[in-house]
């Protein structure tokens, strides 16, 4: 297939009959084909607005402080560069070696773009990691162990995971988030029914509550693997999860998160209970 040419199949067909252990190779093959329909061609303005408008939730880096941020499944790294502009030492991680190559090239290509203008007293550093989010070796290699990220941003990573992988996703988020840190989730696709397979898999707001509130545990799921909303319970301190401290509709988001001109994405902020 020629570079950039769209394959005749969908993402669902590309991953449909593959075990989760094969997904890394399948993502890498899409980068090789240069068919990346999930790429938004720029950073999340929902994240930018959140950091600017809800400073009470974020102890943003200052001239003498350094804080770390992680974007798992970073792709071309748009949001990694945005977080660095806000002063975070930002780490973009992807399981695809080709994705990280594209991220490095993208960082060079957008240098000087005003969307990445430095905010505040300092600009953060940018780091690229090829690694498996669910394993700890990449953290040890860069000298940042579990519980060391002050901000984690998840946009198209959660929805890229099939339902059986989501309990481990939640457990890993809890492990990687520093005390006092914040996990930010741009919830997409928030309105997709669980009966429609992924990726992207359905990501209704209540599913984040179910998984992050009780990390590592299986919620009650329907016949399609989606979380049953009526069975979702609020997190308890004894479950060792995260609690939601903000849930709102962003003022701006990517076109993929709109329907008939209405924003259907939601953005949430989480912290340790």
UniProtKB/TrEMBL annotation:
Keyword Transmembrane: no
Keywords in alphabetical order: Methyltransferase, Phosphoprotein, S-adenosyl-L-methionine, Transferase
Region of interest: Disordered: 1-20
Keyword S-adenosyl-L-methionine found: yes
InterPro entries: SAM-dependent_MTases_sf, TPMT
Matches recorded under CDD domains: AdoMet_MTases
Any GO molecular function: S-adenosylmethionine-dependent methyltransferase activity
GO BP: methylation
Pfam families (alphabetical): TPMT
Domain of life from the UniProt record: Eukaryota
Record-linked PANTHER family: CYSTEINE SULFINATE DESULFINASE_CYSTEINE DESULFURASE AND RELATED ENZYMES (PTHR32183:SF6), PTHR32183
Protein name: Thiol methyltransferase 1
Species annotation: Neoarthrinium moseri
């Amino acid at each position: 297939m020629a570079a950039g040419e769209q394959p005749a199949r969908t993402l669902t067909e590309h991953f449909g009959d593959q075990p989760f252990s094969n997904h890394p190779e399948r993502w890498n093959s899409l980068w090789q084909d240069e068919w990346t329909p999930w790429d938004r061609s720029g950073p999340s303005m929902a994240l930018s607005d959140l950091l600017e408008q809800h400073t009470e939730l974020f102890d943003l880096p200052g001239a003498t402080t350094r804080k770390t941020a992680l974007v798992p499944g970073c792709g071309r790294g748009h949001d990694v560069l945005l977080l660095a502009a806000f002063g975070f030492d930002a780490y973009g991680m992807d399981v695809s070696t080709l994705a990280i190559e594209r991220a490095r090239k993208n960082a060079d290509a957008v240098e000087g773009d005003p969307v990445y203008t430095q905010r505040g007293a300092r600009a953060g550093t940018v780091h690229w990691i090829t690694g498996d989010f669910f394993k700890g070796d990449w953290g040890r290699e860069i000298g940042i162990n579990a519980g060391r990220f002050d901000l984690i941003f998840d946009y198209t990573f959660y929805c890229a995971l099939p339902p059986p992988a989501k309990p481990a996703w939640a457990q890993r988020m809890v492990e990687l988030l520093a005390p006092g840190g914040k996990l930010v989730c741009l919830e997409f696709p928030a309105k997709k029914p669980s009966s429609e397979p992924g990726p992207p898999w359905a990501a209704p707001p209540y599913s984040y509550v179910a998984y992050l509130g009780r990390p590592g545990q299986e919620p009650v799921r329907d016949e399609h693997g989606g979380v049953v909303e009526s069975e979702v319970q609020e997190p308890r301190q004894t479950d060792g999860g995260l609690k939601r401290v903000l849930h709102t509709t962003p003022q701006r988001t990517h076109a993929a998160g709109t329907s008939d001109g209405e924003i259907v994405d939601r953005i949430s902020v989480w912290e340790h209970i």
